[in-house]
Amino acid sequence: MRIISGIYKSRKIIAPKNLPVRPTTDMAKESLFNIINNLFYFDDISVLDLFAGTGNISYEFASRGTQNIICVDQDYGCIKFINQTAEAFKMPIDTIKSDVFKFLEKSGLQANIIFADPPYNFSEAQFAKIPELVFQNSMLMEDGILIIEHSKHTNLSNLNHYSYSKSYGGNMFSFFEIA
């Protein structure tokens, strides 16, 4: 994977092969950040990266100037890799090793952008639980967005707070906002 833009533009990051991840493709990531760039100033926001995996999305935010980034993942290997990479690049990324659903139930954190990239084989009920907990616990700041990455075969448009989706190849990003 590579960083698309910002101070670390074109830097390649090689994740260990044994991590249980499916990193967002460069094409999809570039398209996503074009959308986000039109909505926010990167240096003024806070980001919560759920199911962070390799930290791919968080590195892109850090490269573009975001100073408040928290990654949540339950896999120790993923958290260790994110910590090592963030330290090597001197990126302002903090990590929390936790089951994402338990974290969402108990966390008092708020963010401008909450990005979730759960396993594509999640059930509809598991996908629905993400926005349910985010909005139930008021985790988005005013004018914030929740973005869930999922397969084009998954439809989240029936969930509360759904706003719109964008498709890039086999990837989809569904956007949720405070009503």
What name goes with the CATH superfamily? Vaccinia Virus protein VP39
Order of helices and strands: HEHEHEHEHEEE
Computed CA radius of gyration, to the nearest angstrom: 15 Å
The first-level CATH class is given as Alpha Beta
Strand order of the largest sheet: 3-2-1-4-5-7-6
Tell me the overall shape: globular
CATH architecture: 3-Layer(aba) Sandwich
Summarize the main sheet.
7 strands, mixed
How many domain modules?
1
Tally of individual helices: 5
Give the termini distance in whole angstroms. 35 Å
Arithmetic mean of pLDDT: 94
Helical residue percent band: 25-40%
Strand coverage percent: 25-35%
Return the CATH topology: Rossmann fold
Low-confidence parts: none
Task: Find the count of extended strands (DSSP E, 2+ residues).
Answer: 7
Query: Which structural class do the helices and strands define?
Result: alpha/beta
Tell me what you see in this structure:
The protein has a single domain (26-177), classed as 3-Layer(aba) Sandwich (Rossmann fold), CATH 3.40.50. By secondary structure, it is of the alpha/beta class. Strand 1, helix 2 and strand 2 form a beta-alpha-beta unit. It has five helices and seven strands; from the N terminus they run H-E-H-E-H-E-H-E-H-E-E-E. The mean pLDDT is 94. Helices cover 30% and strands 27% of the residues.
Summarize this structure briefly.
The chain is an alpha/beta fold. It has helices spanning 26-37, 56-63, 76-89, 100-106, 124-136; strands at 46-50, 68-73, 93-97, 111-116, 140-151, 162-168, 171-177. It has a single domain (26-177), classed as 3-Layer(aba) Sandwich (Rossmann fold).
